[in-house]
Write a structure and sequence with these properties.
Blueprint: E1 2-7, E2 15-20, E3 28-38, H1 40-46, E4 56-57, E5 61-69, E6 81-84, H2 94-98, E7 117-119, E8 124-127, E9 137-141, E10 145-147, H3 154-157, H4 163-174, E11 182-186, H5 190-201, E12 206-211, H6 216-223, E13 227-230, H7 235-242, E14 248-253, H8 258-266, E15 268-276, H9 290-296, E16 299-302, H10 310-323, E17 332-336, H11 341-349, E18 355-359
Parallel strand pairs: 4-8, 11-12, 11-14, 12-13, 14-15, 15-16, 17-18
Antiparallel strand pairs: 1-2, 1-4, 2-7, 3-5, 3-9, 3-18, 5-6, 6-10, 7-8
């Protein structure tokens, strides 16, 4: 039996307990988790904003060591250190093979709908986003793990599996920030702080962080923000003032609310670029007038998994970690145990802290 945190039903409290995890079958890999980040997407899965069959073990941002592999597995072997990949590309669908856009893979989340373990009372359990990292061990498909490049601490490497890849990709692949440009970042949680670090590495001139919590200012400035604003109805005007009256060259929205998406778009200059990383509800609406769309010539785009190809981008991020340009430790404000995941969810709802990291003993 393996200790885990189970979501018994949508909007139900998380339940710490034990699960029966099978040995890996053909093409599958068993991983002993070293650490798992608590991401806002896990909260979205638990409350029904994102669809997830239940009961489920959530957690998708994780790293650990391979303990066993099934027949036919060649990419990793027992003893290898790996990062979990919650959106593994199939390599053969239209988006992967023809467009070269693996982050939009048709089959990326198929594993989340297939039972992977059983609860102590015999119920089938589903893996949250195909990975089920809120457990001491998990079993995933071979393409659901990425070999960890050398020189990255294994516990901190969990953050590379979601927050850092997403933040890095939003800056470099979505808004394509150029050296000397300015960036506004809405939301200074784990992903937002990763965006700020990526913008600093990219050579941004001004990085304006926006959050509802004054307590995020120190975290944002430590990550590289040059300015910090408390979110308000005048945020867009304040960002235009800070950027010489023009507006930021680009903005990244990490909250997923209609109000912040609109504010992020309005905070950019004419011709500015806004990328939406945050995941919002399907019933929210963002509105623009046809005249302002024409006049400002801004672009607004979604961003899935940072528009990243993890196999390509993970080694780049590892290089930044080894050089000291990327400090994974500054993203973590709480190192917790598995039983503390429900409390970490409450902290996210209250807007407290950066990333909570479950560290397994």
């Amino acid at each position: 039996m393996v200790r885990a945190v189970v979501l018994p039903a949508v909007k139900a409290p998380l339940e710490p307990g034990e699960i029966d995890l099978p040995e890996p079958g053909p093409g599958r890999v068993r991983v002993r988790l070293t650490a798992a980040g608590v991401c806002h997407s896990d909260l979205s899965l638990s409350n029904g904003t994102l669809r997830q069959p239940v009961p489920a073990v959530l957690g998708h941002e994780g790293a650990g060591t391979v303990t066993a592999v099934g027949e036919g597995v060649t990419a990793v072997a027992p003893g290898d250190e790996v990062v979990l990949n919650w959106a593994p590309a199939c390599g053969s669908c239209h988006f992967c093979a023809k467009l070269g856009e693996p982050w939009l893979c048709t089959d990326a989340n198929a594993a989340s709908g297939v039972p992977y373990a059983r609860s102590a009372d015999g119920r089938d359990l589903y893996p949250g986003l195909g990975t089920a990292a809120f457990a001491e061990e998990t079993v995933v498909a071979e393409r659901g793990v990425l070999p960890l490049p050398a020189g990255v601490p294994l516990a901190d490497a969990a953050l590379l599996g979601c927050a850092v890849l997403t933040g890095y990709g939003a800056v470099n692949h979505s808004v394509r920030l150029r050296e000397g440009e300015s960036l506004a970042v809405f939301g200074a949680g784990g992903v937002g702080l990763s965006v700020i670090q990526a913008a600093r590495i990219a050579g941004a001139d001004r990085i304006v962080a926006v959050d509802v919590s004054p307590g995020k200012e120190e975290l944002a400035r430590r990550a590289g923000a040059t300015d910090f604003l408390i979110a308000s109805d005048t945020t867009a005007k304040e960002i235009r003032r800070i950027t010489g009256g023009l507006g930021a060259d680009a903005a990244v929205e990490c909250v997923g609310r209609a109000e912040t998406i609109r504010a992020a778009w309005s905070s950019t200059r004419r011709g500015g670029r806004t990328s939406v990383v945050g995941i919002g509800g399907k019933d929210s609406r963002v509105s623009f007038s046809p005249l302002e769309i024409f006049h400002f010539a801004r672009t607004l785009s979604g961003c899935v998994y940072g528009n990243c190809d993890p196999a390509r981008d993970l080694p780049v991020l590892a290089g930044h970690v080894r050089s000291g340009r990327l400090d994974l430790g500054t993203l973590v404000t709480d190192r917790i145990g598995l039983a503390d995941v429900p409390a970490a969810f409450e902290a996210m709802l209250a807007g407290r802290g950066g990333r909570a990291l479950v560290v397994f003993g």
